[in-house]
TrEMBL record:
Segments passing through the bilayer: 26-43, 63-83, 117-136, 142-162, 182-200, 233-254
PANTHER family xrefs: SLR1174 PROTEIN, SLR1174 PROTEIN-RELATED
Pfam families (UniProt xref): ABC2_membrane_6
Protein name: ABC transporter permease
Keyword terms of this UniProt record: Membrane, Transmembrane, Transmembrane helix
Keyword Transmembrane: yes
């Protein structure tokens, strides 16, 4: 185990140093991903104009809390690995990585993890600022915070695995990132980035509960808003763990098959 820990420590340290060089860009990336905040303003305006000052049980402050929580969690699950894998495979840049005694997966994974630590201080500062401006009020239940963090970790891992698998499709396609854009739409819509899942038609909700998306964004946001229970958090964690295992197996299988194709064309 010591050799594995030393590899993880060295990889994390190098990736953290690399990401620190791009800290200004990280803040810009954060500010460019503000779809949830735009939706927050739209729904707050709708609630203020509605009779009784609420829409389906949500007051303006509760919409602010939900969408600000969604934005916070989505920032912890940003994944760009498909955009790096696609050119690396198609242009042969993957070849030097294959000479190393380590699957490139771990370098990309720890790079993303290290970026979270670079992102976190500015992210928390912006959340505090937006909460003050919007009147968002997070729950006082202490258990909701570790539960939301646990779901975010599982959600990030599941998302990284499927995005990595999409990137590996570059072994067979000219642009694997096209698939990534399609999956992002499902992730955003069913994850609750546009509206809480309870606002969707019943048949959409019934389909969504079989996917990992509602448990990655919507459920942690509901926890931080005080609108979900610990039992729901545990159920969501179990679903994300199951999907993570599935994506892990699929990722490994696609990687092995793709490598045979990569070598067959002389890359």
């Amino acid at each position: 185990m010591n050799w594995a820990w030393r590899k993880v420590r060295v990889l994390f340290a190098t990736q953290f140093a690399l990401m620190t060089e791009y800290r200004a860009e990280v803040v810009i990336w954060m500010l460019s991903g503000t779809l949830s905040l735009v939706m927050m303003l739209v729904w707050m305006a709708q609630a203020e104009a509605a009779p009784g000052g609420q829409v389906r049980g949500y007051t303006p402050a509760e919409f602010a809390t939900y969408f600000l929580s969604t934005w916070l969690i989505s920032q912890l699950m940003v994944v760009w690995v498909a955009w790096e894998l696609d050119p690396a495979i198609r242009q042969g840049q993957l070849s030097p990585w294959l000479l190393r005694p380590l699957d490139p997966f771990w370098t990309y994974f720890l790079g993303h993890v290290a970026e979270r630590f670079v992102r976190l201080p500015a992210l928390l500062g912006l959340v505090a600022l937006f909460a003050w401006l919007s009147g968002a009020q997070f729950t006082a239940q202490w258990w909701a915070y570790p539960a939301a963090i646990g779901l975010a970790v599982l959600g990030f891992t599941a998302r990284f695995l499927w995005e990595y698998t999409i990137g590996l499709l570059a072994f067979w396609t000219d642009s694997s990132t096209s698939f990534q854009e399609l999956v992002w739409l499902l992730y955003a819509a069913l994850g609750g980035m546009f509206a809480p899942l309870a606002f969707y038609p019943d048949w959409v909700q019934r389909v969504a509960v079989w996917t990992p998306f509602p448990y990655m964004l919507g459920l942690p946001a509901q926890l931080l808003s005080g609108k979900a229970t610990l039992a729901q958090a545990l159920q969501g964690g179990a679903v994300l763990l199951a999907w993570g295992l599935i994506f892990g197996v699929v990722r490994y299988a696609v990687w092995r098959v793709g490598l045979r194709r990569y070598g067959a064309v002389g890359a």
